[in-house]
Design the sequence.
């Protein structure tokens, strides 16, 4: 039924029926008006607090939980690393030693002393 | 908890979320309140463009008020209705009485021109009769009998006592009944079973 169309009242005009019909089909608000109202709302909206904006930037509470867990685990590994994990500093020294040996081979150590 | 209280709490929560920067709350609040504001403005003013202006202005005032909103003092829907009612009163003040030709008519894709015109006439009968009521009676009748609000809420919106609301709606209904009965034969209410 089109909005506001009234029922036939053979015995006289039924105002309540007209009210019911009008209530059941309110005048439709345009999408353009709805959009303008939301634009106004966003324009006038107070900025969210900094912590809320940061939370949104990193992806919400779930992402924040993961970030906190990863940070805590990393920190704990730094303080008390598991016994079977190699010390990265020692590994660095070993790599440098190997690199020096490789360079010696590549340079053909002893070759040009024979020439000389 | 009553439906009324639930709606009131939901609107208050959305307003608080809006004031805290939640953009989704603005959309939800607008979807809940602005269609009712527009419907009331249209029925009181009888003009689409003016009703849109009034609705946008009322919602604009709500957005501005949101950061200072006191949920204990006011209900958002009542507050918006009140602003709309006042804006409508302002627009109607000094405006000459409208004729039927000036009333905004929604599009109606009826099967024939004759049927379409008759449907528009019927459909507009209540609206045009409403527009012939004195402004306060019109607002009270629309709020009570079409929007379905309770008398205390209407009293708050129109800034009158509940007895005055009862008087306004009773007089408005009598005038509408007489007006529409006078139109009945001309509009062909007895011709079919539409």
Sequence:
């Amino acid at each position: 039924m089109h909005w506001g169309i009234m029922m036939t009242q053979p015995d006289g005009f039924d105002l309540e029926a007209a009210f019911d019909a009008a209530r059941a089909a309110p005048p439709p608000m345009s999408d353009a008006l709805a959009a303008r109202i939301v634009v106004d709302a966003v324009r006038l909206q107070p900025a969210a607090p900094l912590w809320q904006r940061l939370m949104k930037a990193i992806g919400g509470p779930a992402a924040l939980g993961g970030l906190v867990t990863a940070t805590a685990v990393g920190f704990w590994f730094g303080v008390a690393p598991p016994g079977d994990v190699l010390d990265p500093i020692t590994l660095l020294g070993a790599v440098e030693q190997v690199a020096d040996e490789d360079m010696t081979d590549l340079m053909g150590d002893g070759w040009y002393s024979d020439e000389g | 908890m009553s439906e009324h209280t639930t709606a009131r709490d939901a609107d208050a929560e959305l307003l608080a979320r809006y004031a805290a920067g939640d953009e989704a709350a603005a959309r939800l609040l607008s979807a809940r309140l602005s269609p009712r504001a527009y419907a009331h403005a249209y029925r009181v003013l009888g003009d689409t463009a003016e009703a849109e202006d009034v609705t946008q202005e009322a919602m604009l005032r709500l957005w501005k008020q949101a950061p200072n909103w006191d949920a204990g003092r006011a209900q958002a829907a009542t507050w918006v209705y009140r602003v709309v009612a006042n804006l409508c009163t302002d627009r109607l003040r000094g405006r000459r009485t409208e004729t039927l030709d000036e009333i905004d008519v929604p599009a109606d894709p009826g099967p024939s021109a004759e049927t379409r015109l008759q449907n528009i006439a019927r459909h507009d009968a209540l609206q045009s009769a409403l527009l012939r009521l004195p402004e306060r009676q019109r607002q009270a009748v629309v709020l009570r009998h079409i929007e379905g609000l309770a008398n205390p809420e209407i009293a708050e919106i129109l800034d009158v006592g509940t007895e005055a609301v009862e008087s306004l709606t009773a007089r408005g209904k009598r005038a509408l009944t007489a007006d529409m009965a006078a139109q009945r034969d001309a509009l062909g209410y007895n011709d079919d079973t539409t």
Remarks:
- The first helix of chain A runs from residue 15 to 24.
- Chain A touches chain B through 39 residues (CB under 8 Å).
